[in-house]
Amino acid sequence: MKKQPLHIKRDKVVITIKDLEKSFGKHQVLKGLDLDVFKGENVVVLGRSASGKSVLIKIIAGLMFADKGKVNVLGEDVAKLKMKDLDELRLKIGFSFQGSALYDSMTLRENLEFPFLRSRKNADKPNMETTIKEVLEDVQLLEAIDQLPAELSGGQKKRAGIARTLMLRPEIILYDEPTSGLDPITSVEIIKLINEVQKKYSTSSIIITHDLTCAKNTGDRIAMLVNGKFISNGTFDEVFKTSNPDITGFYNYNFIND
Fold this sequence. Notes:
Elements: E1 9-24, E2 27-39, E3 42-46, H1 53-60, E4 68-73, E5 76-77, H2 83-90, E6 93-96, H3 108-119, H4 125-138, H5 154-166, E7 172-176, H6 184-201, E8 204-209, H7 212-218, E9 221-226, E10 229-234, H8 236-240, H9 245-254
Parallel strand pairs: 3-8, 3-9, 6-7, 7-8
Antiparallel strand pairs: 1-2, 1-4, 4-5, 9-10
Helix pairs in contact: 3-5, 4-5, 6-7
């Protein structure tokens, strides 16, 4: 079990979610979610595919809006922000997309330059170059700096997506299925990278996944999402020490026992 980092600040909440609801037509996806994320903490939102995990982090980032409830990020009510203020808040939020979201026509260097140049009108080019090399070194991709995404493996693309997120030194990172589609060895490498990023950059993160190995080894706390609600919240051992079939069934599917 991943040890609780000493730098988690339990007296400082960076994300607060209250009574959050979201429907698409007649289908209600989120049914009144409550969650706090503390500074320096990795919180895993664990649930089956199509359980609303991705919808939740899109609402947190202001890419989608809830029907009811509140989302407060770094002291800001996301739904009430004007577009300019929302854009400024998003600079403090890194979003690691499931598909890495790299531009195919750009080299890795150019992919990392893009968010830096777009967010800074008078970008310091030497500083940008130093930052690019630093984050690529952190994700072990410095040697691939001039390669195109098509030349990278699936795991390298995941690393590159995380590197691009780190370019703006975000306070919060939202990871969308970071180990999805990866082989077990590469998944372990991404898990280690998530923990290294948390330690080096003092990030607070929400990691959405249905991968129990990822959840167990990255999550300081687990929030179990079932049928649009959080039915359990605690450490990995606390969440799975239960006879609730919605939770035990999920565990048995990931770790099949004879």
